[in-house]
Write a structure and sequence with these properties.
The protein is of the alpha+beta class and about 325 residues long. Helices cover about 30% and strands about 30% of the residues. It has nine helices and 18 strands. A nine-stranded mixed β-sheet has the order 3-4-7-8-11-14-15-16-18. A four-stranded antiparallel β-sheet has the order 2-9-10-17, with no helix packed on it. A hairpin with a 2-residue loop joins β9 and β10. α7 packs across α8. The chain is globular and about 55 Å long.
Length: about 325
């Protein structure tokens, strides 16, 4: 029996009411997910933010026949806009930093598993080998010119695009004088400033076994990006075995890292997005080693056996659950 389950909300957002002002709010569907924008300020800026999201979606979509990424995958070469090129460079930087645990060239494997359509299935070894022969971010390193990219594989920036988009929206709103905003882009949460009433932002981390409920809440003030990647988000069952959508580029199979989810906290949305996938693929040992040599992110790890492990910088923010602190 085959069953597909897709859960778009990875982080449960729990917002206390604001007594000093009411934000302008908009819900849209873009980048294949439901997005919510709350902006304390000029109402017209919400419409401008929505337009920017739709513009980036049109550039970056792997399935939109008019997108730059679709053209690159179809023709093997494309002139890219500054936005698409910038995101591709950021994606490669995360790939290099994580030794390929995050890889924008993984799209052939995504297709082989049928995750691009409602045709999920376990591919044959022959199909996996053929797909893996096209995967490897290193193959992109000498294919980038100032604006033109030539590549004989296929690229998918979906693992980092929402984080990049959230960061762009926050930067845009800040440039317009907005001091407070809350964005939820399909589980990618990003805040701008502190709430007008002085209360903390409260964001719950979904329980992988019961995704509509939270295992605990992160309470914080100020600007921050929080992104969760988990095997419970999207999966299918075949012959009694569950297969999730987060693929390990090196094996071609769904990552088998012992983790149920990873939540990354960072000040850059694209970095948080890319690292959440990479750390999930890497597993606890390699992920915590990367954290110890870094100073630009914190993380919450939920293991398949029910453990909760939190890096030092995130430990002071997590409430309502018992956890183990990861020390440097």
């Amino acid at each position: 029996m085959k069953k597909l389950c897709a859960i778009s909300l990875l982080l449960v957002c729990l917002l206390c009411g604001c007594t000093e002002s009411v934000p302008a709010e908009r819900e849209i569907f873009a980048m294949d997910t439901l997005m919510t924008l709350r902006v304390w300020g000029d109402d017209t800026l919400v419409s401008d933010a929505v337009s920017e999201i739709n513009r980036l979606d049109a550039l970056l979509s792997v399935t939109n026949e008019n997108s730059e990424i679709f053209a690159l995958n179809r023709d093997g070469e494309a002139e890219l806009s500054a936005d698409t090129y910038d995101l591709l460079v950021k994606a490669i930087a995360v790939s290099r930093r994580t030794d390929g645990a995050f890889d924008p060239t993984v799209y052939p494997l995504v297709v082989a598993w049928g995750f691009t359509k409602d045709e999920q299935h376990v591919p044959t070894q022959e199909a996996l080998d053929a797909a893996r022969s096209l995967v490897g971010y290193e193959r992109l390193l000498n294919r980038l010119d100032v604006t033109c990219v030539s590549f004989d594989g296929r690229i998918d920036l979906g693992g980092i695009a929402k984080g990049y988009t959230a960061q762009r929206i926050v930067d845009f709103l800040r440039s317009k004088g907005v001091e407070t905003a809350f964005l939820s882009l399909g589980g990618n949460v990003q805040t701008l400033g502190s709430k007008p009433d002085g209360e903390a932002w409260v964001v719950g981390i979904a329980d992988p076994d019961r995704p509509s409920q939270a295992i605990g809440c992160l309470r914080f003030s100020g600007s921050l990006a929080l992104v969760t990647s988990g095997g419970y988000q999207r999966y299918f069952d075949e012959n009694g075995v569950r297969y999730h959508h987060i693929l390990d580029p090196k094996t071609g199979y769904p990552a088998d890292s012992g983790l149920a989810s990873v939540t990354v906290l960072a000040h850059d949305g694209a970095l948080a997005d890319g690292l959440s996938t990479a750390l999930f693929v890497m597993g606890m040992e390699k992920a915590t080693a990367l954290w110890r040599e870094s100073d630009d992110f914190e993380a919450v790890f939920l293991t398949e056996d029910g453990g909760i492990f939190v890096t030092e910088g995130a430990a002071s923010l997590l409430r309502d659950c018992e956890f183990t602190v990861i020390e440097r």
